[in-house]
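Researcher: Please predict.
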Amino acid sequence: MRFLVLGGSNFVGRHLVQRALAEGHDVVLFNRGRTNPGIFDGAEEVRGDRDGGLDGLSGRTFDRVVDVSGYLPRVVRQSTELLRDSTEHYTFISTVSVYADFTKTDLDEDSAVGTVADESVEDITDETYGPLKALCEDVVRSVYEDRCAIVRPGIVAGPFDHTDRFTYWCVRASRGGELVAPDDAARPVQFIDARDLAAFILHLSSDSLHGVFNASGPRSEALGWGSFLETCIAVGRSQAKPVWAPERVLRDAGAEIGRELPLYAPIDMPGFATVNCDRAIAAGLGFSDLERSVEDTLGWARAERPELIAGMTPEREAEILEALRRSRI
């Protein structure tokens, strides 16, 4: 099959293209050429801009289109309408952040999505990101009807991750010592290996499956923070010791939950770590061994990611540990 990938050179798109090429598909990438140009042997690269610069795709046909870089409904409409009669199926990569209420658990694909008062807004912030993605989904469905699939991933893990949300824990656990761990060992954590996500996207696209699919893991049953960190420590061959810090202590110490404690779903937002993925699993979503995800991410980080943008510095971790000790006096 001939796949057109809108984006395709960074993280999820990169894994997707690697997988498609390995399966013997013809792949055409459309992007601006700013991120990792020329990294794929055997893939055609078409330069352009999704916003008003799609001329390089005019008059061409593709068996399948996968859109991994759509964030604004106005821009997504340009590609969907241009390619309406040029492909049999369009897969759009959205996000679980579309959901409106993360105080609820077990969010499924029929749960309410967030809205934005001004649907023409194009400033992407923590408040508008999810609702804008939901509007992008609406555009795709309006153009392709039953010829599209919508994938809503949770936090994505693995090599090439530019957010470091999963990577931080792999690296930190490998360094040993007392490790600040969020709340308690039984709290759930969710993420999906980018390679599992890529395989699922290709499956949906190749088989022209229709519908909306949550996609998170790293397995079908719940994973607790304790088991997750035990795996990170074992893979990193360290003597790290998790020190469980109640969320109250973390907040009193000014910890930034999303940045300094990535992956962690706050007590008042449990939905972020309990998304229901039964539909995707029934449709063919599979999961790699957690050990593989940790080992490959750690190896990549050691080789290519000397500085992380997420997680705690050693100095900050020492401050939190001291605050925890004081809270117990």
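Model: The radius of gyration is 20 Å.
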